[in-house]
Design brief:
The chain is built from 11 helices and 11 strands. It has one domain (2-320): NAD(P)-binding Rossmann-like Domain (Rossmann fold). Helix 7 (246-256) runs parallel beside helix 11 (307-320). It is an alpha/beta fold and 321 residues long. Helices cover 40% and strands 15% of the residues. Helix 4 links the parallel strand 5 (108-112) and strand 6.
Length: 321
Amino acid sequence: MKIILPGGTGQVGGVLRRALAARGDEVVVLSRRPEQLEDGVRHVLWDGRTLGAWADEIDGADAVINLAGRTVSARYNDRNLRQMMDSRVDSTRVVGEAIERAAQPPTVWLQMSTATIYADARSRPDDLPHDETNGIIGGEEPDVPLYWEYSVRIARRWEETQAAADVPGTRRVALRAAMVMTPDRGGVFDYLSWMARVGVGGPVAGGRQYVSWIHGDDFVRAVELLLEREDIEGPVNLAAPEPVTQRALMRSLRRAWGRRPGLPATAWMAEIGAFVLRTDTELLLKSRRVVPGRLLESGFVFTHPTWDGAARDLVAERRRR
């Protein structure tokens, strides 16, 4: 297949482009800065906002997997939130425009989205996890910070922009991805592992909030499935079938690193830590309890269905590097 990969130089993009290239696909990465990539992967410049020569790559391609968007690992101030919104909406809009204008449009467009679109799990009266059928879209939960609603608004606008594109010949899938765990530097697993190793990886604000996650290997395999399955379109949750509490997540990770101690932290202590790391406490405090209903219905079998096993695998791979 010829696959166009906007945003393919990020952490998740790197995992995906290497896997696709390894299986023999022609991979074309679109990004704003030239990058030295693997053999078999071409790089084309784009600005993520306007049509240009890069759009010629989409004409005749088999698939587009758009991962473009400013990282969410940043302080959630007005400037950064606006950049998160604009980078996602603009890149999705212009990808849609390129597909609309293509003489031979791709057969499938996988568009990155986020499991953050769902409401805080503690607000559900029925105590059920969120899947694609019964999931409650967030934004109106009581007793949560107002800017959390903006994160949900970003996710909704992201998906609405893909849905609004006039591309009747192209199947569209919105990838509602949970935290993608890989052993690479700079990703969420890297940050959590640092916390576990230095002894501050205990429960945060009680640790009862849920964390939804997916091993990078299963993320890649799920994307490969969605490229092939012509009967699947619309939103799909990319998350392992067993979300865990933050307390359990860090306990398993500390054990995987050799039974390290884990000091607990209050919400205000987490705020200080997030400020130092230039990220935001929403990533630690929002309760995300998301399950992969449509993937399981499709017959997808997870290689890493439980966090205990995934943590051990990721730590072992990190040690080998």
